[in-house]
Every structure is written in C-alpha cells, then in structure tokens.
Amino acid sequence: HLVDALVEPAGLLGGLALTIVAPLLLFNFIGAHGALWFATALGVAVGLALWFGLPPTGATAAASLAAAVEPTEPVRPLEIFLAAASGFVFFALEVLWFHLISAVCGASTYSFSLLLAAILLAVAFAGWQVSRSTPRRHAGERLFWILSRLLPLLAVCAAAWPHLGRLFSVAQTRLQLHTFWAGESLKFAVIAFAIVPPAVGLGMIFPLVLRGLDDAGAPGSRRVGWICTANVIGCVVGSLWAGFIMIPALGAEHSFLALWFLVAVACAILGWRLRAARSLVRGALAWVAAGALAI
Fold first, then answer.
1. Which of 40, 81, 91, 112 could cross-link to 239 by cystine, CB 3.0-4.6 Å?
2. Residue 54: partners with Cβ closer than 8 Å, 6 or more residues away
3. Pair 86, 259: CB distance under 8 Å
C-alpha cells in the first residue's frame, strides 16, 4: 500500500523536476536541440527499464486470465460526469492561468515552466493525500466536502489575480531582487500563491472518483477505463474551449465565474445523488455562500 501511495506522486514529482531543470539549466548548457535529445534518451531508458522489468510470460498469462474472469461492472454516469468535469475545469483553468500569468510575469518559457511546476506540485500533493488517507467518510462524501470548499478557493483566486502584478512589482522593489534566480524565485512564489490552493482541491477529485463513490470500493478495470477516458476527453475539450471560446468571449473575470458555476453544479448534483447528511449539506451551503460573496 505504501508503494501504491507513492507511485503517482513520484511520477508527478519527476515531471516537476524536469519542468524546472529543462528551461533553467538544460537550455542554457545544451540548447533546445540538446534538450530534445536528452528527453529522447530518457524516454528510451524508461522504455528499456519497462521492457526488462516486465514479469515472466507465465505471470503475464495468469494476470490476463484473472482480468478475463473479472465481473463486468456497470458504468456509472455520475463517475463519468465528475471525471470529465474535473478534467474540463482543471485544463480550462490552466489555460486561463497562463493567460493571466503572461500579463503579470511575461509570456516566456520560464513563466510557463513555473506555472507547470506549481500545478504539478499541487497535483502530486493532492494525489499523495488521497492515496495515504483512510477517511471516515466514503469517497463520495469526501468528494462532496472538497467540492464545497473548492468554491471559495476559486473565488479568492479570481479576486486575487488583478492585484498580483502590483504585488510582484512591490515585492521585487522592496526586496531589491536584481539577480535572475532571485527574480524567478519570487515569480514562482507569486504564481504558487494564486494557483496551488485551488489546484490541490481540483487534483483530489479524479483520485477520489477512482476510489469509488460508494461503499462498494474501488471500481474494476472496465469502469476505470471509462473514467480515465472521460477525464482525458474533459481535459482536451476544456483546454480548447478555454483558449478559443471562453477567454475571447467572456474575458478573464467572467471565465472564472463560469468555471465556478460549473463546480457549483457538480457539487449540487453530487450532494443530491449521495443524499448527503444535513450537517454536511449545511457546511457545504456555508462554503458556497462564502464563495458567492467573494465573487
């Protein structure tokens, strides 16, 4: 169980490390062409490690036989909806965040690298929290609790963005940061301040859906396949919708409002579907009201 809990965060932390190393170190020493060859060599090394680390043929056949006799589970529309909605909102927010960061910190490779680093750090922490925890509530109720708390976080994030540029300029002047590394560290701190809290909440949604939304436990392989497919489709549609439709049509502030409304709808549907306890609903309504007030 400890190994299972560390697999996803370890992969995300590896991505986080190369997200920071590539533009800040590799490009300066070996250039973009050399960085591409480095990434290719690293991918080949991972492929060889997987090839030689595969189980023997007998074990593979046994695993295939076990998968063949696995009982077929029905695909649950609520899980598909939540997986797709979480991917849609997360990637739409990533596009929106980069749009805003370009105005605050400049549209550069370093800014995009720091944005990815902050997001990967948040998602790794979220996955680690979900993997290691054994909550008293089942995953569905815990997901409802997270969605209700996510609403005010998104509202505060939307309210903070217009002031981040001034905050960055004032901090850079008062701290007298004149070196490249000091300036990029400050930029990362400003980006993480606005992005990490809501990204952690969003990053916990998909792992909780994979755990199963009821007391029956985690879904089988067929349901997992459908859930992952829905999440990927939501990510693709969310990124395209945000970049080509939402931001040009609504602007940054109203785009935050539209995504906040989608999360509120998902929270309401999940609460109704789970027939959540009155105390849980009262707490959720309080957080929803706080988010609406912040907006």
1. 91
2. 60
3. no
Alpha helices (H) in the chain, listed in sequence order: 2-21, 27-53, 57-68, 77-105, 109-132, 139-174, 180-203, 205-211, 221-241, 247-274, 278-294
Alpha carbon distance 18, 15 (integer Å): 5
Quick one: tokens of 115? 């944005």
* Residue whose structure tokens are 């190393």: 21
Mean pLDDT of the chain, nearest integer: 76
Query: Measured between alpha carbons, how far is 23 from 30 in angstroms, rounded to an integer?
Result: 11
Q: Please give the Cα distance from 36 to 207 (Å, whole number).
A: 31
pTM beyond cutoff 0.85? no
- Whether the CB-CB separation of 262 and 85 falls below 8 Å is answered with yes
pLDDT at 213: 57
Helix (H), strand (E), coil (C) string for 70-89 = CCCCCCCHHHHHHHHHHHHH
